[in-house]
Amino acid sequence: MNDFYFSIASFPFIGYNEGNQTKVGVTMAKISMLTPLVEMDGDEMTRVLWSIIKEELICPFVDLKTEYYDLGLKHRDETNDQVTVDSANATKKYGVAVKCATITPNAQRVEEYNLKKMWPSPNGTIRAMLDGTVFRAPILVKGIEPCVKNWKKPITLARHAYGDVYKNTELIIPGPGKVELVYTAADGTETRKLVHDYTTPGVAQAMHNLNPSIESFARSCFEFALSTKQDLWFATKDTISKQYDHTFKDIFAEIYEKEYKDKFASAGITYFYTLIDDAVARVMKAEGGFIWACKNYDGDVMSDMVSSAFGSLAMMTSVLVSPHGYFEYEAAHGTVQRHYYKHLAGEETSTNSVATIFAWSGALRKRGELDNLPDLMDFADRLEQATLNTIAQGKMTKDLALITTLPEVTVLNSRDFILAIREQLEA
Ligand code: NAP
Ligand code: MG
After folding, report:
1. Which of 2, 90, 121, 291 has the fewest CB atoms within 10 Å of its CB?
2. How many Å apart are CA 421 and CA 408, to the nearest integer?
3. C-alpha atoms less than 13 angstroms from C-alpha of 414 in its C-beta half-sphere
4. DSSP E strand stretches across 212-270
5. How does pLDDT run across 265-282, given as a tens digit for each residue?
6. What backbone phi and psi angles, to 5 degrees, belong to 396?
7. How many whole angstroms separate alpha carbon 378 and alpha carbon 363?
8. Atom 8, ligand 1: which residue's CA is nearest?
9. CA dihedral of 401, 407, 411, 415, whole degrees rounded to 10
10. Model pTM score
């Protein structure tokens, strides 16, 4: 069991006690829960996996309590998206949610599902209501080696999800003329800065951010670092952006000094700020096992790099952490539409359910932590270990079989992979 890259205790968002004893034998009585999880069902192939996971891996072992919200696109449309809002409110009430991947409608989906309108992304709605930050972490397993050979532990990426280039105002400059930035204060006084005096055609762009959003981002990062006992790195381009990026740096530093310095010291973790270029260089040489907080654009780009270098999008977990202490767990990938159409056509699929299983285990563990239910936390550990053991034994879905370094591999279909995990779990 210890031949994994890292012990299960080093997984992000696991409040795992290293002193825990592995349970011997299977208890027949189901593990009980106190507070319901907020269950957000979703779309397409992940919805298919969702019900098999519940039926085979959760309900036989846990007396599952959930408050169910159907975020499937059809039901979002029927409720004018009220169900998404209700599910976010329920998360504020209970504290922990588990979410299935959902379709973000585009023009093609509006037609496919005959939608009343192009509803917004449920993740966007939920994130805005919980004021949270998304942390993405790879699931490491023997046989799936990171491209970067010195990465031995997960690198968790935290992306600020507000503003910057994602809420920009752009202008095509057709020819000679001036572009200025004008701030008009509430009392009418103006502050002006010249952006550029154009002599040729060109382009211009303005961006903004808000201190409360940066503060929430910082607090979510510090809280998550504490709860997972991992160092926190943060980086911006403050040497060039002396006011904009420097404000991010200052806000993080101020909150750290005032609220987290002592807590970090007693947890034995560090907060480390550096220039983004330096961070990128260091990440490539690091061993992993830390949280990397990024501004919006850096996080967008770097999370794709980190996740693909760790092996597979199907092995990335995602947790939304709000500074108020709400948690929403999900897989980082989408609804795997291409596989779903095969499934609908009656063809066999081999869709990887690992990240969705880890969304469930993450949520159950957090529920166990908050409600002081060691059996539930222990079950979450066992479910994850059974999943990793199944892969390490060479039983995996097609996406992993294509990249594994294991010599002998059995490719399983979507259901049989989950059944193989159940066998492990019962063993
Ligand atoms: P996707 O569902 O992540 O799938 C893209 C491709 O990645 C798949 O076709 C598949 O490759 C591979 N893949 C992803 N997850 C996999 C898994 N679990 N097992 C095996 N292969 C996996 O992205 P998409 O097809 O671009 O988006 C589909 C829908 O998901 C969209 O409507 C989008 O709005 C939604 N979406 C939702 C979320 C969310 O709810 N958090 C996130 C992203 C996207 P192959 O086809 O080559 O096998
Ligand atoms: Mg991206």
Report:
1. 2
2. 18
3. 22
4. 231-236
5. 999 999 999 999 999 999
6. -155, 170
7. 13
8. 336
9. -90
10. 0.86
